[in-house]
Write a structure and sequence with these properties.
Elements lengths: L2 H21 L5 H25 L5 H24 L5 H23 L8 H19 L6 E2 L2 E2 H23 L1 H5 L3
Antiparallel strand pairs: 1-2
Length: about 180
């Protein structure tokens, strides 16, 4: 197993650790969870860079890397809903967009077409990571603006950009959808 795949596996193993730290109520658990989340999210860029720069791209990495990303973000968002920090409709929109994109990629693959990641998708990911950290750390007074927590506002922005990036993705790949059989 090469280095990028090991880093991806470490990220997958960090997901349950992050969840335990976030949900276990001890002093500074939110800060510790935010640090773990950021570290896990940062490994995504590291493993991808190493894989591409050293020509270590593997089929396992192509499968496990996006899976690790989805596990991390979905775990965080679902936990935050359970903790009452963000509304479920935002999480449903974010997760639905991921399923739609995965489905479109599957359709494209059956046609021998590889859909590369779009810049809007990369920006969406960064915004979601920042919003998730805000929802972990800034969920109650004094981090309120007009009755909404900073975490809620950040997640609202992430949800809006998620919708935008999903529409952009579908529009750019509409020919694949139109030719699906």
């Amino acid at each position: 197993m090469n280095l990028p795949n090991k880093i991806t596996l470490i990220r997958i193993l960090m997901v349950p650790l992050f969840m335990i730290v976030l949900l276990w109520n001890f002093p500074y658990h939110n800060l510790a969870a935010a640090v773990l989340f950021v570290l896990a999210a940062a490994t995504d860029g590291v493993d991808g860079h190493i894989a591409r720069s050293r020509n270590l791209v593997t089929d396992f990495g192509k499968f496990a890397d996006p899976l690790a990303d989805k596990l991390l973000v979905c775990t965080a968002l679902i936990c935050l809903v359970g903790m009452g920090r963000i509304p479920s409709y935002m999480v449903v929109i974010i997760i639905a967009r991921e399923f739609i994109v995965m489905g479109l990629r599957q359709i494209a693959m059956t046609k021998g077409v590889v859909i590369a990641a779009e810049m809007t998708g990369k920006i969406k990911t960064v915004i979601q990571i920042i919003a998730t950290v805000c929802a972990i750390l800034f969920y109650a007074p004094p981090f309120d603006i007009a009755g909404f927590s900073l975490g809620y506002i950040a997640m609202g922005i992430a949800t809006a950009f998620t919708i935008y990036s999903g529409v952009d993705y579908l529009w750019r790949n509409r020919a694949i959808i139109g030719n699906a059989k």
